[in-house]
Amino acid sequence: MKFTCITVLFWPFSMLLLSDKSQTSKIEVKCNFTEKDYSLIPVGINNNVTILDLSYNKITLNVTDTRVLQKYFLLTELYLIQNNITILHNSSFSNLSNLEILNICRNSIHVIQQNAFVGLNKLKQLHLCQNKILQLNPDMFMPLNNLKLLNLQGNLISYFDVPQLFHLELIILYGNPWNCTCSLFNLQNWLKTSNVILENENITMCSYPHSLTCYSIKTVPYMAECYSKFASSITEDLYVHFQSISNSTFNSSLNNFTRNSEHEPLGKSWVFLVGVVVTALMTSLLILTAIKCPIWYNFLLSYNHRRLEEHEAETYEDGFPGNSNSLPHIGDINSEDTTVIFEQLHSFVAEDDGFIEDKYIDTHELCEEN
């Protein structure tokens, strides 16, 4: 009971202390160093500064300036209008997490590195007007999660893809030489479908081609081919999106797909693929057979002349007295008898009548007829 009473008594006092702290945290500390002919950001600035104006100097925002800026982490507004800045390097404002307004207009900026705006999570207004910017990668604006105003007026930009700025409310694009071909169709479609307001729409005109110079970039008519290209770009964006999925998610989805495919029948595409493969294999086999057939044929014919087996040799010897052991011994026969025997043997040979001898006629039958 005592504890509750004490808390009730001290509650208003604690609320007063918190309100005082919040008021002190919102105190603005302004530092104006305009037209001081500074070439570097001065070091002796109050560390509690919240609004810093360094316009109309000769600051280049080099590495030394970047290191000095890291000290002023309480900055909410930074003005660098009309200086000698040509390049915005990576992490130039990485420690300015409380910055809400950044104005770098009227410089000679022609290069903005990819990570130039890293760390500006609370930035609401970005002014890059009247520089020499030729092109911008929309991915460089990804760290600007709370950006509401983007000022690109008076540069040399002819093409600008859709930026991924989900909280953007106002965009300024006039004073650029816009090329209103199909490449700008995505930007026009984004300006029409989103809630972003294009400031000075009536003077944000096309510069090329000449037939479209009287149109605003938001109202210029496009041919049907641009719509088809726009559809193809959407599919490419989806492909890039799926490529950015982590390996674990991809593996799990792949496992689920294989499990489901085990219970589902194959589609007609698989049947067609199998048919094509089988047809290719059969065609290759037929070609190989046609090439190798003569070799196999000759190989088979070579086996028609085989050696006689043992029982076939005996029958051959019985039918044809060609054995040397069965021949009579004629060693005592003189030369005259030999001549007579030779003439008798050759008397059965038929005379040559000009016809080819038929090897299939039995010689024993011919002898009997003679």
UniProtKB/TrEMBL annotation:
SMART domains: LRR_TYP (SM00369), LRRCT (SM00082). GO terms for molecular function: signaling receptor activity. GO terms for biological process: host-mediated modulation of intestinal microbiota composition; positive regulation of canonical NF-kappaB signal transduction; positive regulation of non-canonical NF-kappaB signal transduction; regulation of cytokine production; regulation of inflammatory response; toll-like receptor signaling pathway. Residues 176-227 form the LRRCT domain. It is found in: Membrane. It is a single-pass type I membrane protein. Pfam families: LRR19-TM, LRR_8. Pathogen-recognition receptor which mediates the activation of TRAF2- and TRAF6 NF-kappa-B signaling pathways and induces the expression of pro-inflammatory cytokines. In kidney, prevents infection by uropathogenic bacteria by inducing the production of cytokines, chemokines and antimicrobial substances. In gut, involved in host-microbiota interactions, plays a critical role in promoting the recruitment of immune cells and intestinal inflammation. Interacts with TRAF2 and TRAF6. This is Leucine-rich repeat-containing protein 19. It comes from Ictidomys tridecemlineatus (Thirteen-lined ground squirrel).
